[in-house]
Amino acid sequence: MTSKSPSALCEPCAGIQPHWRRAPGHAELVQGNNRKVDRGQGQATITQYVCESCGTAWEYENNKANLHAGWSVVSR
After folding, report:
1. Which of 58, 55, 56 is nearest to 46 (CA)?
2. How far apart are CA 28 and CA 68, in angstroms?
3. 4: which residues sit within 8 A by CB, 6+ positions away?
C-alpha cells in the first residue's frame, strides 16, 4: 500500500471538473448529508461527499440558475 500525503488528491478526484454544474464525480465518492441553501434566484441543494480512496471531502451544489456551481473541495 502506498502512503499518500493528506493533501494529495487521488487520480479520480484530480479528474473532477470543479465549479461546473453537471460535471461527473467518480465511483469512490460516498454521499453524505444534503442541505438546501437560498441563493437569491431560488434554492440550491448542496450534497456532501467523501472520497474513500484519498479522504477528500467534496460538496456538490445543484443550482439550476448557476452553471458554475457544481463540485468544490471542502477539505483533504
Report:
1. 58
2. 23
3. 10, 54
Q: In the numeric block, which cell numbers belong to residue 2?
A: 502506498
Whole-model pTM: value is 0.84
Please give the C-alpha separations between residue 36 and each of 12, 33, 70, in angstroms, as whole numbers. Answer: 27, 11, 14
The pLDDT profile of the chain, 76 residues, written as one tens digit per residue, is 344 444 689 999 999 999 998 999 999 999 999 999 998 888 999 999 999 999 999 999 999 888 899 999 997 6
Dihedral angle computed from the Cα positions of residues 3, 49, 33 and 6, in that order, rounded to the nearest 10 degrees = 30
C-alpha cell of residue 65: 440558475
